Structure formats: C-alpha cells, structure tokens
From TrEMBL, chain A:
Organism for this UniProt entry: Geothrix oryzae
Principal subcellular localization: membrane
Keyword Transmembrane: yes
Keywords: Cell membrane, Membrane, Transmembrane, Transmembrane helix
Name of the molecule in the record: Branched-chain amino acid ABC transporter permease
From TrEMBL, chain B:
Protein name (record): Branched-chain amino acid ABC transporter permease
TM helices/strands, residue ranges: 12-35, 42-59, 96-116, 136-161, 191-215, 227-250, 262-278
Coiled coil: none
Compartments, record wording: Cell membrane
Pfam families: BPD_transp_2 (PF02653)
Keyword Transmembrane helix included in the entry's annotation: yes
Organism listed in the record: Geothrix oryzae
Keywords: Amino-acid transport, Cell membrane, Membrane, Transmembrane, Transmembrane helix, Transport
Membrane topology field: Multi-pass membrane protein
Family statement drawn from the similarity comment of this UniProt entry: Belongs to the binding-protein-dependent transport system permease family. LivHM subfamily.
Length: 349, 289
C-alpha cells in the first residue's frame, strides 16, 4: 500500500517538474533534446502496443510514421492547412492504410509477417519517390513556415519557439503511456497477450484473432501517425528515406526491444538510453572528448575523419546494442532491471 | 518483339545472380530455420571485398571470386559460430532482431571505413555488349556472371547430392533431430551451411559489382529481394530459389521496360505479397510451419 502511494507521489513529482521545466531551462538545445526524447518514447510506446503486447513484430512501422508526417506536411505545404487539422487527416488516412495492411499481413505468421510488413512499407516509400506531383518525390517537402493557429483574430499557437513543441511532445508521451496502461489493464490487453503467447490456444478459446490483431494495429498506427506528424512539423522537412525508410522502422522497434517489450516502462527506459547515446555521437561529443584528453589531435587526419564520419555512427551503435541485448539480455533492460531487483530481494531474505 | 526479347534475356541473366543470393538464404533457412536478415549486408561485404581487390591489387572482379568465395565462407562460419549459434533455440523474433542488428553493424562499419559515397567499379568490358542479331544485344559482364553463376550452381548441386557432407547438410535440413540421432554433427553442418550461404551471397556481390553501384546501404535492397526470391520458390528449396531468382529477374526487367524503372521494385513487392497470400508455400515448397 505504502509502495503504491510512494510510486504515485514520485510519478506526480516527475510530471510536475516536466510541466514547469521550460520555464527554468530555456536553452534551445536542452529543449531540443527533451523533444527528441518525447518523440522517441511515443514512437516506442506505439510500437509496444502491437509488438510488445500482441506479439506482432512489425518491421514496417515507418509506413504509419511516414503517412502521418507526409499528410500533415502536404496539407500544410499545398493548402496552408494548420497542422492541428492536418494531423487528424493523417490519422484518418492511417486507419485506412493500417486496415489494408492488416487484412493482408495478419494472415501470415512469424517471419512471413515480418517480411510482409517490410514489403508494404517499402511499397509506400517507393511510391513516395515516384509520385512526384503529389509528394515532390525524392526531394521531399520543406516547410519554411508553420501557419499560426487562429480563432478569429486571436493567435492560439504560433510555433515560433520550441516551447509549444515541448508541450505537444509531453502530451504525446502521456497519451501513449496512458493508452498502453489502459490496454494493459483491460480485457483487450489480456486478449493481446493470449494471442502473443499462443495464437492457436487463444483461437480455440474463442478469441477472434484477426479482429484483435487489427484493433492492436489500428491503435498502434494512429499513435505512430501522431508521432510522425509531430516529427514532420517539428523538423520542417520530410523525404522518403527519413520518414518511410527501413531504418525508421528498425529504430522505432529498437526503442522498445532495448528497453523491454510488453512492459509499460520499457520504451521510456529504451529512449533514456538511446536518445542521449545517439545524440552524443551525432553532435561529435566523442570526437571532442578524444581531442580533449589528447588521444587525437583535432587537425590530424584521424581527427578530421572522426569528426566527419562519427556523426553517422549512431546507427552502428544501435546495431551493436541490439546484438548485445539479444545475446545477453533477451528481455531488454526492463527484464535486466527486474532480474537484479529479484536477486536483491532474494539476498535480503 | 526485339524489345521483348531484349528484356527477357537481360532478365534471365540478372536473374541468375539473384538466384545465387536466394540459394544462399534458402540454404541457411533450410538447415537452421533462421531467417537471415543480414543476407544482403553479407553480399554488400562481398561487393566491397571485390572493390578492394580490384583497386588495390588490380584483380578482375570475376577472377576475385576465387579469393572472395573462401574468405566469405570463413566470415559466414564465424558469424554462425559466435552469434547465430546462441539464438538457435531462442524465439523467432530474437533471431530476426539479432540478424538485423548484425546487418546494421556491417553496413555502418563499412560506412565508417569507406563513407557513404557511391563507388563504381569500371572494368574494360563494363559497358561492352555482344550483338545477337535482330536488334538484340547482350551485356558482356552480365553474360559472364551468368555463366559463372550457372557453374557455381551446378557445383553446389553436385556437392549437395553426391558428397557425404552435402548429404549430411540435406539430412539436417530435413530433420535436425533425426540427423543428430544418426550421428551427424549438426553444429558443424550449421557452420558449413552459414558459411556456404555467405560465400554464395558474397560471390553474387562480386559478380554484380561491375554493373551495379557499390554503397554501404545496398544490402537492404538485396535482403528483401532475396526473401522475395526464396518465398517465391518455397523457403528451403534450392531448386525453387533458382527458379524464383530467374522469375524475379524477368519480372524486374519486364516492368522496367513496360511500366517504368522507378516502379519495378514496387511490382516485385506486390508480386511478393500476392504470392504470400495465394500460394504461401511457394512454387516448390511443401509446408511452412
């Protein structure tokens, strides 16, 4: 009992400090990092609902991310439609796409499902490249300005600073966590887990497999689409590889796998590890560190090489992490933490 | 008619190389039931190996197969022994993720070393063609690589059918437990199968390098293509993979001519989804459990 109270108190404290944070932390870089973290958590959590709870390991989530990002950006670019409305157009479209994908892919299992999910996302990526009149092709869409949201003459949001993005990102995180929690504690979640553990047994108990897989996919796709819209507007640029590429699908999935699939806090933990790590590589912190301790001089050939190329290495790091996690912590960081906690408990007894 | 014949011939020639990639993947799947998502990246490593041998030592890409085949065999054996072996009894998604992770490590390590620039390997015969008559011509490098592919496939067929090791590999892929009870060293067969699969992928990379761009991310495209080929042929079937490779080659070159080159991969993926839906056991496969 006291444990529950302590836990909720800690949660409220974290939430309160996240809400007031932009007041005290005004450095755009720090805000940017927090926004990236929020984006990552909401991506991972969205995948978690389908991949972690229902056990359908889609490697094609870029499809939903990209549809959200592209729809919002295209509406904004072509017709100056405010993102607040464009987002919902993206959601509507993504539901259609998800149901189409679901009706094809859910007839397949295991590796065949994975392959089909990749193929569908690839079809969308190649279409985005080839439908130049609609999507601007390989050049992508650049939004120079986000139209302000006005009611009458009053400006509600202007997106001139990073602060509105911070709060929208935080809202997305809370939304995805709340929905995951609801799923976990409802009949739906138990059905998902039954399907994950043994599809045939679940079927023989009368669970409508295809229906529940599609429900899981639609929830997951809508949330991923919201994250995609958010990404598109925040970065102001979308093109086929950055929102529809296979790398996007893999990265979405990794947040969850490294953190721990099918757990509420896995994607949060995964993001807390992955985002700072990949950002450290991207921003050349490592090269600067090596220069500082005198291992590499900044203007030597190797120093210049590292500076130019190490920024690409965050995907390499993702790869190494995946290999290590699968080999040594098959249940992700959450599983590892739980194991440690269990061991401590046992030792205490 | 000339256009039709032309695209049919180039489809068959490129399909031969695709078949080689597919056979490698299907061999690995057959023996270990592991879907190797790093297959295209292994092929990419083979392409860079060929590129290195060509630029540093001046060895012709087609001759370099003699060096890259054994090297890639060792590389594959190493991957199997250090990584894949540990997840053989794990759940399927962990196997998939591990091979995706290995693929990411390979492509990004190569990117760190060689940067992401496109490399082109130009030989004296890279753009030469042989006129057949009737307005139809055959690209020389594609023809040579097709002949080498055919020779390798024939040698592999002989190896699998006639030698003791080949028979042991086939036995392992039919029933791993029964093979073990019969005294077959399945662990060794797994290493050989992964080595062979990698060597075939690497060889395909070497054969395709005079006519294709070389870049670190090239593997992703070919991993998918390899799957389409093996699923089309029936997972685990070597004959099926050969057929699937040629079929995909023809589909690609036909849709490039009659639809557009930008949409040819879309046609292949749509075909793939249709096969999964309507003939999930593939052309040669029996069951898929």
């Amino acid at each position: 009992m006291t444990k529950t109270i302590l836990k909720s108190a800690a949660g409220l404290l974290v939430l309160a400090s996240l809400l007031v944070l932009p007041r005290y932390m005004q450095s755009p870089y720090a805000l940017h990092m927090m926004i990236l973290l929020f984006l990552s958590v909401s991506q991972g959590q969205s995948w978690n609902i389908l991949g972690g709870y229902a056990g359908q390991h889609s490697v094609g989530h870029a499809a939903y991310f990209g549809v959200g990002a592209y729809t919002t950006m295209m509406l904004m670019h072509t017709w100056q439609i405010v993102p607040w409305i464009g987002v919902w157009a993206g959601v509507g479209l993504v539901v259609v796409v998800a149901l189409a994908i679901g009706s094809i892919c859910f007839r397949l299992r295991g590796p065949y499902f994975v392959l089909a999910s990749i193929a569908v996302a690839e079809i969308l990526r190649l279409s985005a490249i080839n439908l130049t009149t609609l999507t601007n092709g390989a050049e992508g869409i650049l939004a120079t300005e986000i139209p302000a949201f006005k009611i009458g003459e009053r400006v509600v949001t202007d997106f001139l600073t990073k602060v509105p993005f911070y709060y929208i990102g935080l809202f997305l995180v809370l939304l995805t966590i709340a929905i995951t929690w609801l799923v976990q504690h409802s009949k739906l979640g138990y059905y998902f887990q039954a399907i994950r553990e043994d599809q045939d047994a679940a079927h023989s108990l009368g669970i409508h497999i295809a229906l529940y897989k599609n429900i899981g996919l639609v929830i997951s796709a809508i949330l991923t689409s919201l994250a995609g819209s958010f990404y598109g507007i925040y970065v102001g640029f979308v093109d086929p590889p950055t929102v529809l590429g296979l790398d996007v699908s893999v990265q979405i999935m990794l947040i969850c796998i490294i953190g721990g699939m099918g757990t509420l806090w896995g994607p949060v933990l995964g993001s807390l590890v992955l985002v700072p790590l990949s950002e450290a590589l991207r921003s050349n912190l490592i090269t600067e560190g090596l220069v500082k301790i005198g291992l590499v001089s900044a203007d030597s050939r190797i120093g210049i090489f590292l500076k130019e190329n190490l920024s690409h290495a965050h995907v390499l790091l993702y790869g190494i992490l995946v290999v290590l996690v699968i080999l040594f912590m098959p249940d992700g960081l959450m599983g590892f933490v739980k194991k440690l906690a269990m061991r401590r408990k046992r030792e205490a007894v | 008619m000339a256009v039709f014949l032309q695209s049919l011939i180039s489809g068959i020639l490129i399909g031969g190389v695709y078949a080689l990639i597919g056979i490698g993947l299907t061999l690995i799947f057959g023996v270990m039931r592991v879907v190797n998502f790093a297959h295209g990246d292994i092929m990419m490593v083979g392409m860079y190996l060929t590129y290195l041998l060509f630029t540093i030592l001046g060895i012709d890409p087609f001759v370099s197969v003699l060096i890259s085949f054994p090297l890639m065999f060792l590389f594959g054996g190493f991957l199997q022994k250090t990584f894949i072996n540990r997840v053989l009894s794990a759940v399927a998604q962990n196997q998939i993720l591990l091979t995706i992770g290995l693929g990411l490590v390979m492509s990004n390590t190569v990117m760190l070393i060689f940067t992401s620039d496109y490399k082109i390997l130009t030989t004296s015969y890279s753009s030469s063609t042989i006129q057949v008559g009737g307005g139809v011509s055959i690209s020389t490098p594609l023809l040579i690589s097709f002949l080498i592919t055919a020779a390798i496939t024939a040698a592999l067929g002989w190896f699998l059918l006639k030698t003791d090791t080949g028979q042991a590999i086939r036995a392992t892929s039919q029933d791993r437990d029964a093979a073990q009870l019969m005294g077959i060293n399945v662990k060794r067969m797994s290493i050989i199968a992964f080595g062979l699969g990698s060597a075939l992928a690497g060889t395909a990379g070497a054969l395709i390098s005079p006519t294709y761009y070389i870049f670190p991310q090239v593997g992703g495209v070919f991993t998918l293509k390899a799957f389409v080929i093996t699923v089309l042929g029936g997972m685990g079937s070597v004959v099926g993979a050969t057929l699937g490779g040629v079929l995909i080659g023809i589909t690609e070159s036909m849709s490039a001519v009659y639809i557009s080159s930008g949409w040819k991969d879309v046609v292949v993926f749509v075909l793939f989804l249709l096969v999964l839906l309507f003939k999930p056991s593939g052309l040669m496969g029996k069951s898929r459990t």
